[in-house]
């Protein structure tokens, strides 16, 4: 039998399950002249999260520059990952300001400039901004993976125009070209099928439909191949493979559960596979991103938790006020309390994904988290004022050892957020010295 | 002209010409195009860019021009005066947009380098602080070529503005050799601010000088904590240039310092020097039992960054009662999964402090250690209350992963400690939000003797949404709870169920006559959330509009619009609220009117009267704008006609405009409108004439002229 390699997949009728890294595969990969990723040196993954409406800033920023000894309340869920965490004070997105246009609400502009560092053109019809950081990275490394990038979101991407700006700016953070936003996928089932299904022909589609109807597992389809790999790898890898397959099955089970749950009342038709429970929706998307990174199916991902200016509510936090409405706090202590609860909740979901990433062991003994750069933040700082100064932004991960993490960076005034994006790109290996409106890199962030 | 330059000029002719265009979009496109062309072309376009900097007002064009100029570096020297002009002038941009343009202009000057230094020095006297700060930044970026500016920058170490001072520190450091002697001298300045700035600036030098290192080491013992902290930061930047013994001494002293800023500087510096950190392990361990929270907490933090070998030191310190359990537990968790077996073992220690720290650390450790939930669950039954509380707190951080512990957590709901009972409520809700027994568990503590338990139970039930519907009767009973917060939580729960909680209407109606304004507001707001099902409460809610308390009247006004009643029923009661002395109440009443959609026009005669108040006029005008398409309600024409004779011109004016929208139905208003042709207010007269012309029937056409 031919020795398996990282590029091998567990295949079955219409199914294709990429393998995670396993120590038994590295020698074969090296002998076959594989790329560093296949031979054992983990690639850098880039993941960018967006939350709308800004945050309650006093609970976001650490008090002191330097080592992250004390985390502010909103960031406490990330305490376990503080050595992988970088926080910033003083970042601005000047390109989210109107800069000469007569007016703008700041929501669309904030989201549009978040990963591009560019000014959104004021137009309701022809959108124009610039290529985003994830797409630039995807172009750089995307050829090595099955999908150049993955764009996910958890709220319907419909949004109206406002103040002369297209609604598309509020619903997209990822831009393939200056005029082509990359739409995000909302349905975890579609993402799952895309990640683990081979081909798009009618036979494949029929197989997926058959799998859905009988609620069979993808694992059943690849069982023969999985057994073949099991026989060829070490005991430790066998355990790792079983853990991985169990993890995939667990995600699949939760997606199947969402696909059969009763639809919501009223006019809102929830696509099969989109969980009714928003919390579960968020967590499933996190699991899918981790699986995609773990199997090196993609190295670039964006996640728009909700669209900019979203007024979604979070009843499980004990109140039903909409997020956007709450963000216009007017310094009302009660509204600020609720805003902090929403902010902390969003960060706890990030922590959920970060923990999963910390549990994935990579070829060199490092973790997926060690080899990632997870950017998280909002294009608006204070939702009440719609400003873009002192943006709430953090970075989790060490970018394969290229990021000096564990610190709070107090930056000089006027530091463009594009400087963070440029630092990320450079540390991920892109030979560039300018991105968006960057004026340099972040001092002390690069190793 | 060479052929290449000729081609460049030809290719650029369009964008350069467009830079002068009247249309801002054309100028923006031109500026972006020039920014993107190759260097030679940008050099060729420099004169046009300079011209633009002198006059352009659009922010996007200016930013693109700044970028294009910056990218030319020293070749953009002819632009120095235009850039200085940009810093001195405001081209119409305000606030942040202006200050960011200052930054980009200063960056362009910095990129030009030496030829820009004298101009930058001249800008140091500019009035605006942000401009001066950017100028200092630019001088720093220029580096050694900015040496002539050292004399200007040194006094800025004492500048009252933190921003300028911080820029001066960096700039003096970056200029290098020329600033070395003055900075060393300033390290002994009598003003601590100047000393700390000088010490910090020396640390920014790209190549540390031994004299600078010596001066900074000396200042690590300065009387001022600000200077000591700056010294530690600079020593860290010097890195290997500092003799190891001196570095170690400074760090260890810094970690024992009473001042938090100094300690944090030492913590930060220590993380960068793992070899020094390892040599400090004994010292750090001794600090775990030092007096004062700060040094112990910071020592624990650093030990938590030293790897699994630090675990015994941390656990050992717990034997001493002077040590603090919380920071040590955090540090143990920071050591990561390799110490998980040690922690599991420690959770069975005879020492309650060790057990407490172990369960807390296991609760914070991620990924979750195998066996951790079992250890925490066992800890719930620990004889020591601190350990059981720690176990419950640790489980609380696990969310649904704490599900195996639910039976034991449930048992705590009946325990002696109110604090544990309240915490158990939270843990149960987090661990098993979909557990069928959760509602019963939470309802079971609604009669707990402590409000601190009853209130979170109601809040958690509220968070369960429709799953918590079973608790409605219990929540209604809690509307009579002796504790205000519990009553508020009960009302909030009921409001969350909307019309499904209709059975709460009598109890909520009774609360409208409650003892405190807060309770009356709460009752009104909750009734509003129940919608149509609370219509029976209309009269008592409306009665609150006469309350002496403004927030009560405001809540009542809002609730009247939420009960799904007809405009005809509500208007008589709401009319007074639209003329309430409180702007907040009037605003709430107008919001209520707007909730009636098309029927809102029935309120127009009352809304018009709000125009008496100048601050309400914009809102009234917006309200009338919405009526433009449909016109006023025909039933209100007589009242609107009477408003034409109102004392206040603003009311008359708006009444004229509204009546004019009614078309033939406004015929009865014509005499009153005619009278307004002679109104003392010119605008009223003009509008009245226009309205009359519009409403008067066209004169009959004489026969034969058809």
- The best one-word shape of chain A is globular
Distance between the termini of chain B: 78 Å
Task: Give the SSE string of chain A.
Answer: EEHHEEEHHEHEEHHHHHHEHHEEEH
What's the rounded overall pLDDT mean of chain A?
88
Mind describing the biggest β-sheet of chain A? 8 strands, mixed
Gyration radius of chain B, rounded: 38 Å
CATH topology type of the domain at 497-595 in chain B: Leucine-rich Repeat Variant
Largest sheet of chain B: none
Number-wise, the strands of chain B total: 0
Q: N- to C-terminal separation of chain A? A: 44 Å
Fold-level CATH name of the largest domain in chain A: Alkaline Phosphatase, subunit A
The rounded Rg of chain A comes to 22 Å
Give the DSSP E fraction of chain A (strand runs of 2 or more residues): 5-15%
**Using DSSP, what is the number of strands of chain A?**
12
CATH architecture of the largest domain in chain A: 3-Layer(aba) Sandwich
Low-confidence stretches of chain A: 262-268
CATH H-level superfamily of the domain at 497-595 in chain B = Leucine-rich Repeat Variant
Estimated structural class of chain A: alpha/beta
Question: How would you describe the overall organization of this protein?
Answer:
The complex is a heterodimer of chains A (447) and B (706). By secondary structure, chain A is α/β, with parallel strands linked by helices. Chain A folds into 2 domains: 1-41 and 199-273, no CATH class; 46-186 and 277-447, Alkaline Phosphatase, subunit A. Helix content of chain A is 34%, strand content 13%. Chain A contains 14 helices and 12 strands. An 8-stranded mixed β-sheet of chain A has the order 4-12-5-11-10-3-9-6, with helices on both faces. A two-stranded antiparallel sheet of chain A has the order 1-2. The longest helix of chain A is centred in the middle third of the chain and has 26 residues, at 235-260. Chain A starts with 8 loop residues before the first strand and ends in a 20-residue tail after the last helix. Chain B is flat. Among the domains of chain B are: 497-595, Leucine-rich Repeat Variant (Alpha Horseshoe); 598-696. Chain B is mainly alpha-helical. The mean pLDDT of chain B is 93. The longest helix of chain B is centred in the N-terminal third of the chain and has 18 residues, at 95-112. Classes of the chains: A alpha/beta (447), B mainly alpha (706). At the A-B interface, strand 4, helix 13 and strand 12 of A face helix 4, helix 6, helix 8, helix 10 and helix 16 of B.
